[in-house]
Automatic annotation (TrEMBL):
UniProt GO cellular component terms: cytoplasm
Stored Gene3D superfamilies: 3.10.20.10, Cytidine Deaminase, domain 2
The keyword Cytoplasm belongs to this UniProt entry's keyword annotation: yes
Protein role: Required for formate dehydrogenase (FDH) activity. Acts as a sulfur carrier protein that transfers sulfur from IscS to the molybdenum cofactor prior to its insertion into FDH.
GO MF terms, alphabetically ordered: sulfur carrier activity; sulfurtransferase activity
Subcellular location field: Cytoplasm
GO BP annotations listed: Mo-molybdopterin cofactor biosynthetic process
Family per similarity comment: Belongs to the FdhD family.
The entry's keywords: Cytoplasm, Molybdenum cofactor biosynthesis
Name under which the protein is recorded: Sulfur carrier protein FdhD
Active-site residues, as the UniProt record annotates them: 128
Length: 291
């Protein structure tokens, strides 16, 4: 353990080496249509390995779009249980390599010890939505139950949420190949959004941006361009987000977890309508002016 303390002392607080990998690449291809083929150049999203390193030990390697990497790291740390608040990350350094990006984070001593204990019981980290999980008990972890009385949103805001998110999808406009996660605050609309080739990564980036920006996650709803899987619900619960709205369907397990964690889950939110699967009391009637 002593070498870790020496290594941490050598780092400057919040030092960042510029990430040089572009999030998109113009790529040569050939388009084959009924009337023949022609050479084309498409803007495609980049996908690169991002290693998340806590106190000198790699927790996970994720394939992600190389933008908003510090947001991603903070969000991942929170939603995977490495931290419970912003101040527990003492130092962070983002380093680009020829083959990917490494995010080195140094945590407060109590969090580092907790992770070390968890790591001893793990077979090894994996690069999926449920990172570093090697048992059923860890995959279906206990979650906080959120306050049912502290947040309200109108039907109109839920119904238009994914349409509103469209205007925040710059990468998708260029590539047609990325997911987005947005933060919807009642009466303000979507105030923040993040994109990535992976829906889990987009949500982690959004949660990290909220954390770094001092925005209270309990004050709004997460809006997703994807289906709702159980790990997205878990991430929202751990961040304290009371509502999750998506353009596509939830899994049955996602609904059960949302019900247990007291998260309002709305799906198929598009073209002016939506389905509601858990805790509808947070959704209030629209006023005559549509708000």
């Amino acid at each position: 353990m002593q070498p870790k303390r020496q290594k941490r002392a050598a780092l400057s607080p919040l030092r960042n080496k510029a990430v040089k990998i572009a999030p998109t690449v113009s790529t040569l291809g050939w388009s084959h249509q009924k009337d023949g083929a022609l050479e084309i150049h498409r803007t495609l999203p980049e996908e690169t390995p991002v290693a998340i390193v806590f106190n000198g030990s790699t927790q996970a390697v994720m394939m992600a779009t190389p933008c908003n990497i510090e947001d991603f790291a903070y969000g991942f740390a929170l939603t995977e249980g490495a931290i419970t608040e912003f101040s527990q990350i003492e130092n962070i350094e983002v380093v680009s390599h020829d083959q990917g990006i490494e995010v080195q984070m140094w945590l407060a001593e109590d969090r580092a010890e907790m992770l070390a204990a968890r790591r001893r019981s793990m077979a090894g980290p994996v690069g999926c939505g449920l990172c570093g999980i090697d048992s059923i008990e860890q995959a279906m972890r206990d979650l906080p139950q959120l306050d049912l009385d502290a947040f309200r949103i109108t039907r109109a805001e839920v119904a238009s949420a994914t349409d509103d998110l469209r205007s925040h999808q710059n990468l998708h406009d260029q590539t047609h190949a990325t997911h987005a996660a947005g933060f919807l605050v009642p009466a303000q609309g979507i105030i923040l959004a993040r994109e990535d080739v992976g829906r889990h990564n987009a949500l982690d980036k959004l949660i990290g941006a909220l954390l770094r920006g001092g925005i209270d996650p309990t004050s709004g709803a997460v809006v997703m361009t994807s289906r709702i899987s159980v790990d997205l619900v878990q991430k929202c619960a751990l961040a304290g987000v009371p509502a999750l709205i998506a353009v596509s369907a939830p899994t049955a397990q996602a609904v059960r977890v949302a019900q247990s964690a007291r998260i309002t889950l709305a799906a198929f939110a598009r073209q002016g309508g939506f389905d509601i699967y858990s805790h509808p009391t947070r959704i209030k009637e629209d006023t005559p002016d549509g708000t």
